[in-house]
Amino acid sequence: MKKIYYLLIMVSLALASCNKYLDLKPEDKFTEDDLYSTEAGFNNALNGIYLALADNNLYGANLTLTTVEVLAQRYNVSGDHNFTSFATYAYGQSDVMARFDGIWTSAYKQILNINKLLEALDKHKGILSKEKEDLIRGECMGLRAMMHFDLLRLFGPVYATGKDKNAIPYHKTTTAAPQPIRSAAAVADTVLSELTAAQQYLAADPVTTEGIQDFKSDGRDWFRRRNIRFNYFAAKALQARVLLYTGNKPAALAAAQDVITNATKWFPWVKPTDINSEPVNPDRICSTEIFFALYNPNLYNNQRDYFAAPLQPAAILAPVQSKLTAVYEGLEGDYRYKSSWILPSVGGKTYRTFVKYEDVQDTRKLFRFLQPLVRMSEMYYIAAECTTDATAALQYLNTVRFARGLVNLAATANITTEIGKEYKKEFFGEGQLFFYYKRMMTPKVINGAASAADIAPNYVLPLPLSETNQRTN
Predict the structure, then answer these.
(1) Most-buried pick from 42, 112, 320, 359 (CB within 10 A)?
(2) pTM for the whole thing?
(3) Three-state DSSP class for residue 442
(4) Is 80 helix (H, G, I), strand (E, B) or coil?
(5) Residues 157, 160, 166, CA angle at the centre, nearest 5°?
(6) Helices 415-426, 376-386: inter-axial angle, 10-degree rounding
(7) How far is CA 457 from CA 135, 395, 444, 448, in A?
(8) φ and ψ at 391, to 5 degrees?
(9) Domains along the chain with CATH numbers
């Protein structure tokens, strides 16, 4: 009997305007053969995966706004705060275990869905044009690599000292049966292999010749707005990130330089007027620089639920003001500080609150509902860290600083120290700082809690019970 499963179909991105929510409509049961018998079926299946990736269990919150940022000591979390167990690395607490299990199971569920879609591409030839089939295959392989890499970064060992230790399973099959636990190095190698293959399938990606084109409702919209799909430049940029994580600095430098050289035309730095001079519609996420973002219809609800000034102290995620000021070195002219942090007029707060993901009034703005995952500035940080030319490294950092309204660093600046400062400033609410600390094996970091001593992070999350129990049984 053919497998039956439920599918929530999201209105196709190719037909939806960018300034509206993506609607979810429950459909009847479909057999897999029925689903993939039409081009629309493939569209809906992949769109459903993208929407699921924006769920709060994954990149909608845990892997960007909340959990991994708390692990990086971003916020003042102590006492009876909802996230205290996470901030103190109490990984055995029930709330922490449940959250980690949610990340794990949600990620592998979507990996399984990707594997089914890839299998369908092989089984149902002729439904899609070769052009579109290649794009979908490249997107799926890139997404599968990205999720495995983030699971590795979260649950795997510190790579520099434990790359040969067991890490996570790598799923490429359509069965839900447990797969072998592989070493961190083996997982990373497979991630890189998949990213190479993804780039080959995405070689003719329109993003490389047309950039980000808005929808026109002319039957070609699937090939536009490629920044909300895993595109060629996202694959190349993620390759640079993974290569740096594994310690291959020459290859990471080459990949980052390739992106800088070929993508800058299509992903320019945000205009200062768009981020600073827009009183009601500021581009706080610097959207023009983002290679890949998820379209998250729940983004502004999360802004309200985690960062809004009226929230109680036990619920709001906000830094101690003095520690926030230290992150930005007292430079209030930094575009990232000016646009993302305000002293609210409600809620009785005496400290600045995070507003990076607040909605804007103009519903036509292309950056509405975008959750950033891969951006241009990271390529400059990778290049600065990997080059052996001190002058070039300084120039890479100064390029980003200029784009953020800051003056150049002194020629005597410590490159490693300045890169660390930039990760703290640039990626607030994007989930990259904890992984930076882990890669650098930072022994202690500034505790996010008020009046607390520096803290030693626990960089290795235990595999969830749902995984270990499955293997035991």
Answers:
(1) 42
(2) 0.92
(3) coil
(4) coil
(5) 30
(6) 160
(7) 40, 32, 7, 12
(8) -65, -45
(9) 4-472 (1.25.40.390)
- Only one residue has tokens 């036990």, namely 314
The token duo for 95 is 């709330």
Cβ atoms of 326 and 372 within 8 Å: the answer is: no
Question: Which conformational region is residue 164 in: left (phi greater than 0), alpha (psi within -120 to 50 degrees), or beta?
Answer: alpha
3-state secondary structure of 13: coil
The per-type count for the chain, helices as H runs and strands as E runs, is 20, 10
Closest CA to 205 of 129, 252, 145, 139: 139
Distance CA 136, CA 272 (A): 35
CA 5 to chain centre: 28
Q: Which residue has the tokens 């430098």?
A: 253
Pair of tokens at residue 123: 């089984």
| φ, ψ dihedrals at 160, nearest 5° | -60, -30
CA angle 408, 410, 414 (to 5 degrees): 110
Q: Mutual orientation of helices 130-155 and 433-440 as an angle, nearest 10°?
A: 60
57 neighbors 106 (Cβ within 8 angstroms): yes
Tokens of 172: 């490429």
What is the DSSP track for 158-227?
Answer: PHHHHTTSEEEE---SS--SPPPEEEHHHHHHHHHHHHHHHHHHTTT-THHHH-SPPP-SSS-GGGS-GG
- Quick one: which of 330, 433, 324 has its CA closest to 381? 433
- Report residue 326: phi and psi, to 5°: -65, -35
Residue 318's H or E segment, with its range, is none
* Per-residue pLDDT in tens (0 to 9) along the chain, 473 residues: 333 333 333 334 333 333 333 333 344 445 777 788 899 999 999 999 999 999 999 999 999 999 999 999 999 998 999 999 999 999 999 999 999 999 999 999 999 999 999 999 999 999 999 999 999 999 999 999 999 999 999 999 999 999 999 999 999 999 888 899 999 999 999 999 999 999 999 999 999 999 998 888 787 877 889 999 999 999 999 999 999 999 999 999 999 999 999 999 999 999 999 999 888 999 999 999 999 999 999 999 999 999 999 999 999 999 999 999 999 999 999 999 999 999 999 999 999 999 999 999 999 999 999 999 999 999 999 999 999 999 999 999 999 999 999 999 999 999 999 999 999 999 999 999 999 999 999 999 999 999 889 999 999 999 998 898 877 75
Cβ–Cβ under 8 Å, residues 251 and 226: no
Q: How many Å separate Cα 409 from the centre of its chain?
A: 28
Euclidean distance between the first and final Cα of the chain, in Å? 27
